[in-house]
Amino acid sequence: MLRSRHVMRQLQLPLQRAYSTGSNPSDGKDPEDLHPIRRTFRLLGNDMLKIKEFFVPTAEKYKDVPKPIATQSKFKFGGDKGLDDEFQTHCDVLIVGGGGIGSSIAFWLKEKARNGLNVVVVEKDEKYTRSATRVSLGALTQQFSLPENIQMSLFGAEFLRNAPEHFGTDIPIQYTPHGQLVLAGEADADMLKQTSQLQNELGARNELLTAERLASRFPWLNTKDVALGCLGLEREGWFDPWALLTNYRRGALGYGGHFVHGEVVDFVFQNQDDIIVTGDSSATEGSYQSLDQVVVQMADGAKRTIKFAICIIAAGVDSGNVARLAHIGRSSGLLRVPLPIDARKRYMYELSAQERDAPGMAMPMILDTSGIFIRRQGLGGHYICAHNGHL
Ligand SMILES: Cc1cc2nc3c(=O)[nH]c(=O)nc-3n(C[C@H](O)[C@H](O)[C@H](O)COP(=O)(O)OP(=O)(O)OC[C@H]3O[C@@H](n4cnc5c(N)ncnc54)[C@H](O)[C@@H]3O)c2cc1C
């Protein structure tokens, strides 16, 4: 537990800090619009331009210039990199990793706090070649056993349903509604009943099906060893995770967030003599060090620092390594416990079946009794298959 002589000062810092201008391009009204005389002049000016266009058509003049692609984005962008962005040396919230999680956190913080919070995301790979978000199957289900996961997924389903309101329509999420079917053998049937009950109590909708009902409803399904199935009836399906990530990123930028292309390679610490650590016998008075800055290795190899009030590690499978840079799991006392995240290899397979009775439109996403997950990919007899556990 930390006790500070200046607890209130410390707690208020993130809210009071406004290190950078972080201007918001999307919410300002043009003050000229409020002035009636200027507004009239502008309307007249527009009419004069139309008359000029009638006599000297610009189409002829610019016939070789490609037409801009129409966009219905909610935000103004200078391409995917956003507006001309200046490097932020200070921020309120620094997020390490701009994958689905990091970009989503940036989006939500900026959506809520707008100019009140300077948010910087540091992402080392702008092409996201090794990002889990990029290869994800984008399956959405509420069939979990932890209430928090069920509630988060219900929120996610509602959010995806309203995605155009949040992001605009120029990068569709491609949400395909379809229930998930979870199969259980004798040993897991009771557990499936209990989790289904919990899910329905929390607002999800799914139904339990015996092996006989499964066989008549899905004649192509092998129900040997299956005792029970649980089929999602609404708010489940799959979407394009790359489109979601791109929208989060663009949305966070549109609200005035900042993305830095670079890798967090170290942290700078600061001695905090005014903080006393209690409940930790190894701590000595005046020995507390807090995180102060990240060291970012930029794409050109140069190293730069960013000072922050709060740092969020959202580095995917590298999160354990980044935490170690912050001494988490490398020191005694509070920092003794490591962040238990590292990489695991996973395989995905694409299968094709051209038989006439191969499952099509009515096929749910299926999680079978062994942990194998399969869903259709389009309607041409193609399927994606993976294993959810550790093989
Ligand atoms: C094959 C597969 C299928 C999946 N299918 C589903 C599914 O159907 N449904 C579902 O809900 N989930 C699924 N998941 C899980 C889901 O994809 C992940 O939980 C989610 O994408 C994790 O997002 P993330 O932002 O934490 O990680 P990532 O997307 O990996 O992003 C982490 C980012 O951090 C960056 N980074 C790392 N270290 C640093 C550093 N030091 N400095 C700067 N940047 C750094 C990386 O470059 C990376 O872009 C699947 C995962 C896999 C692998």
Care to describe what's here?
The chain has 391 residues and is of the alpha+beta class. It has a domain at 175-235 and 346-387: D-Amino Acid Oxidase, Chain A, domain 2 (2-Layer Sandwich), CATH 3.30.9.10. It is built from eleven helices and 17 strands. It has helices spanning 7-16, 36-55, 58-61, 100-113, 132-135, 147-161, 163-167, 186-201, 211-217, 241-254, 319-325; strands spanning 2-4, 90-96, 119-123, 139-140, 176-177, 180-184, 206-210, 228-232, 237-238, 258-271, 275-277, 289-298, 303-313, 348-352, 365-367, 372-376, 382-387. Strands 7-8-6-15-16-17-14 form a seven-stranded mixed sheet. Strands 2-3-10-12-13 form a five-stranded mixed β-barrel, surrounded by four helices. Strands 4-9-5 form a three-stranded antiparallel sheet. Helix 4 (100-113) runs parallel beside helix 10. The longest helix is centred in the N-terminal third of the chain and has 20 residues, at 36-55. The protein is globular, with a radius of gyration of 27 Å. The model is unreliable at 1-28 (pLDDT under 50). Residues 96-97, 99-102, 122-125, 128, 131-133, 135-139, 263-264, 314-316, 318, 322, 346, 348, 386 line the site of flavin-adenine dinucleotide.
Q: In angstroms, what separates the terminal alpha carbons?
A: 40 Å
Tell me the β content.
15-25%
What is the architecture of the domain at 175-235 and 346-387 at the second tier of CATH? 2-Layer Sandwich
The CATH superfamily of the domain at 175-235 and 346-387 is identified as D-Amino Acid Oxidase, subunit A, domain 2
- Rg (C-alpha, Å): 27 Å
Q: Let me know the largest β-sheet.
A: 7 strands, mixed
> What is the succession of H and E elements?
EHHHEHEHEHHEEHEHEEHEEEEHEEEE
Low-confidence stretches: 1-28
Total number of β-strand segments? 17
